[in-house]
Amino acid sequence: MPDSPAQIAVFDVDGVLADVRHRLHFVERKPKNWEGFFAAMDEDGPLSAGITMASDLAQSGCSIVYLTGRNESYRALTTQWLARNGLPTGRLVMRPDHDRRPARLFKPQALQRIAQDGSVVTIVDDDLAVVDALRLAGWPVVHATWMTIARLAEQQSLFDAQEVEGRS
What we know:
Layout: E1 7-11, E2 18-19, H1 34-39, E3 45-46, H2 48-59, E4 63-71, H3 75-84, E5 91-95, H4 103-114, E6 119-125, H5 128-136, E7 141-143, H6 152-164
Parallel strand pairs: 1-4, 1-6, 4-5, 6-7
Antiparallel strand pairs: 2-3
Helix pairs in contact: 4-5
């Protein structure tokens, strides 16, 4: 009997595992300070709901993939953050440095490549535009709502970073 395909659980980083609220002020006004926004990512706090979900799925036998809109140039910093915060070992898929497509376009294409390695059983993302695009395409997606953003300006800043500017 052939082995069944690997079960893959896919997690976004910002807003799902990493609390980015402390650095949103860098992109709330124009001109946006992308250098400051990304320089502060190492100070992101952990989001326990997302980390627990990733750990539980890894313990149940799922392969973990981290799919982030962060640019490739932040790979080392992101890998260190994941390890420092106790995330399970997994593949890290990042946006190419020159790619400024909205996350709702970048992520479905990246998922097609990820799915070549097994069966994607869940995708966890906080960006509603990404969640809607993935659901429309038939992907099993969970909308992460545990990083509560109280101020409308912060919500809009994160949405702009992910969907308008293609930066996170």
